[in-house]
Amino acid sequence: MKSSAYDQDEPMLGWFGPLDSMIIGNVLDSMSDSLIVLGEYGDILYANKATEQMLGYAPGDLRQKDLSQIIFLGRDNLPFKQVFVDALEKKSIRNYREVDYRHPDGSTRRLAATTSYLFVTGEHETTFIGFLALFKDITEVFNLRREERILIGEKERIAREKLVSLHKLAMGVAHEIRNPTVTIGGFAARILRDLRNPEETRRYAGNIVEDARKLEQVVNEVQAYCDLPEARPERLALPPAVEWVVNELQPLGLQRNISLRLEDRIPEGQQVFFDPVLIKMAVSRLVTNAINFSEEGSSVEIVLYLADHAAVMEVADHGVGIEEADLDYVFNPFFSTQVHASGMGLAIVERIVHEHMGRIEVRSRRGDGTTIRIFLPDTLEPRIPF
Fold first, then answer.
1. Tens digits of per-residue pLDDT, 62-110?
2. Rounded to an integer, what distance in angstroms lies between the CA atom of residue 282 and that of residue 249?
3. Is residue 18 part of a domain?
4. Are 271 and 384 contained in the same domain?
5. End position of a domain, from candidates 137, 154, 174
6. Which residues contact 359 (CB under 8 A, 6 or more apart)?
């Protein structure tokens, strides 16, 4: 039984015995990738069946003609042709590249190409046959990657627009609310201090003063958002900056009997591109937030490590956690599950992370605490000014 004609028609397989040729021919024909073997001077020694579907040329047609008659005709597919030129003329092999290929049917495909030398080892010597070119159709994966880049770009555009809008809103809030708040608080304080006023009137005035102070605190937080300086990143070791913040917040933790634990998994000597002032501010707000939401007697863990080509800062508490319905809103300005909080803390942190072209994520389940991670990439793109 003869399963293929390779041992008769294929020059390359002629180097092997009949049984070996049959087995190798069947294996190569079962491949989904295109395999082309070239002689030392560019003659086509072999092409498997997948080549016809992927490149549009039948193996028999390829064997009857050389590269100049098939592949190098016309001006199309220059990057694809360069794969063969580099192998034959520059002897450049084992280098992976991705190229676009214009198929004879008019479609464009994305191919991953690799090349290598091909030898046959005999009893007494090793014979150089030529070059092997392997092509894998990655069109679907390439299109998915492109769509992902488009989605990421759109997400970043929306994030930038959100930050620009928030910045304008914050400036308006700080300007329009501060003066009336100061005026209201000032007049209420005068009423409170005047002992000639009835006690009930003075009690109402005290409530007004207290609420005016809370409103002023919100304005101060909004102003802090507006006054965030432009990021000036430096290449520095990240752990000392985070350790400084943790030491500063130890007294606040002790007040609530909450221990702060810092675990540094970043290799010694590893540097990260970041603005120390802004990152200290972001970590301080995250740790303070974790302390405020933690159960008394529990702990807050701060872990530093490398992942996804980024330095990661993870802050985890053991508080009551966040309702699933609220997770999408935790970085929105003025959103807070605490009654007296301004809701600007995590909005400021998110903007600092955005200034570093990083990302921030939150994971939480009701009753299991909350973990917030900041990812700082190794490189920065130009910042989009507000």
1. 766 666 666 666 677 788 888 888 877 776 666 788 889 888 888 899 9
2. 13
3. no
4. yes
5. 137
6. 353, 374, 375
